Amino acid sequence: MTPLGLYVHVPFCAARCGYCDFNTYTAAELPDGGDRAGFAPAALCEIGHAAAALGAAVRPATTVFFGGGTPTLLPPEDLAAILEGIRQRFGLEDGAEVTTEANPESLNARALARLRAAGFTRVSIGMQHAAPHVLSVLDRVHTPGRAAEAVSDAHAAGFEHVSLDLIYGTPGERADDWALTLDTALAAAPDHVSAYGLEVEPGTALAARVRRGELPPPDGDAMADRQAEADAALSAAGLEWYEVANHAATPEARCRHNLGYWRSHDWWGIGPGAHSHVAGRRWWNVKHPSAYARRLAAGRSPAAGGEVLDPAARRFERIMLEVRLAEGLDLALLSPAGRRAAERLERDGALTLSTGRAVLTLRGRLTADAVVRDLTD
Ligand SMILES: C[S@@+](CC[C@H](N)C(=O)[O-])C[C@H]1O[C@@H](n2cnc3c(N)ncnc32)[C@H](O)[C@@H]1O
Ligand code: SF4
After folding, report:
1. Is the pLDDT of residue 354 over 90?
2. In sequence order, what are the beta bridge partners of 192?
3. Ligand 2 atom at shortest distance from the alpha carbon of 13
4. Mean pLDDT of 145-156
5. Contact 60, 97 (CB under 8 A)
6. CA distance 302 to 286
7. Predicted pLDDT of residue 377
8. Does 1 have pLDDT greater than 90?
9. Which residue, of 8, 47, 200, 212, has the greatest Cβ tally within 10 A?
10. Ligand 2 pocket test: which of 13, 198, 199 has the largest number of ligand atoms within 8 Å of its C-beta?
11. What is the CA radius of gyration of the chain?
12. Residue 78: pLDDT above 90?
């Protein structure tokens, strides 16, 4: 049976970071400050609907991932109650991976101990950067040292698997700022690091600042340099890449939940705006937390729309996702033109094909989007 992941989207943040376009709301953006206390009951209600809708296909979850937003803005008891609901209605496989994302400033030793006791196995902390002037452009509210402290707090609470998210390429970031960030992150000894290039998302405060000329747009060459530096520093520290932006110290430290997305397994997304993919069908929930809560209170599904991908779209999606993995892409997925493009990319040093799979080299990882375009055109 295809492994099943459950994603729980917690759509609340204390403040909105200027670069972020995730479906998340501050208290000021929601009527009456947002009903955070009502979130867990609504999520539990959707979990009940989901288990009933799956019927005979309901099965223990291989992975559970609480993302956001900022899940750790909710009391740990609420996260524990939602996890307990999943355990009761779906079950958890032996050795299931249970992750929560966390912002450095909203994590403390008590919450971590409570989450560990409830069965969480992994924490993913948004560090983003170590240079104060870069954190300020990103509108981050934590001090540069707080993320590393949060990693030690998580280790002390018994979490073996702790990840840090980093962002490179922010306007004004110098090479030594990024080197300091990589050193600071590695000194905290996480067993997983995600390093993302800054995306200027339309509609964000960051995009408006770039449009007004207050900030320069991210520079493509500097981005490639930073990515190569991250790749070198992380692998020298024993964190090998397993997806273009993701590095782990051991195979067990890889994020199995995200691997489920990239391998097109099944997942059910709980919460406002959450996306699901089960048995070839995809759907998504209403985005606003009030609309989500109203639908569930009325006994209705929160799904807002859905689609079944045709074989061509599925093949395109699989190429796009699987070529980014270190395990590589099955060459059988490529059309004859895609196969010729792969052979050319191998001659250019962007891919290796020797194992019967297309695997990105460092050069290919630095130009992964262009490689995908060539393979799918
Ligand atoms: C869903 S966010 C939530 C994490 C958590 N709320 C936090 O900010 O610490 C997951 C990660 O996506 C990354 N991210 C969000 N927006 C991004 C953007 N515009 N460009 C690059 N990375 C981004 C950040 O590294 C962030 O930690
Ligand atoms: S980056 Fe994280 S804390 Fe900032 S607005 Fe997005 S989800 Fe919230």
Report:
1. no
2. 163, 248
3. 8
4. 95
5. no
6. 6
7. 74
8. no
9. 8
10. 13
11. 21
12. yes
Q: Both tokens of residue 210? A: 């770039």
Measure the CA angle with vertex 11, ends 10 and 14; round to 5°.
105
Asked if 155 and 205 count as a contact pair (C-beta separation under 8 A), the reply is no
Per-residue pLDDT tens for 279-310?
999 999 999 999 999 999 999 999 999 999 99
Task: Using alpha carbons, select from 377, 333, 373 the residue that is nearest to residue 358.
Answer: 333
Q: Which two tokens stand for residue 165?
A: 């998210």
Q: pTM for this one?
A: 0.97
Give yes or no for residue 106 having a pLDDT over 90: no
- Ligand 2 mean position, distance from CA 350 (Å): 33
Query: In which band, very low, low, confident or very high, does the pLDDT at 142 lie, cut at 50, 70 and 90?
Result: confident
Round to whole Å and give the CA distance between 14 and 69: 9
Which pLDDT score, from 0 to 100, does residue 31 have? 84
C-beta 196 within 6 A of ligand 1: yes
Judge if the beta carbon of residue 17 lies within 6 A of ligand 2: yes
- The residue to which tokens 């249970």 are assigned: 98
* Contact residues for 239 (Cβ-Cβ < 8 A; gap 6+): 186, 191, 192, 193, 247, 248, 249
Q: Which of 70, 127, 142 to mutate to test the pocket of ligand 2 (most atoms within 8 A of CB)?
A: 70
What are residue 182's phi and psi, to 5 degrees? Answer: -65, -40
CA of 2 to the centre of ligand 2 (A): 31
d(CA 112, CA 340): 51
Please write down the long-range contacts of 143-150, taking CB distance under 8 Å and 24 or more positions apart.
144/184, 145/184, 146/104, 146/105, 147/104, 147/185, 147/188, 148/184, 148/185, 148/187, 148/188, 149/104, 150/102, 150/104, 150/107, 150/125
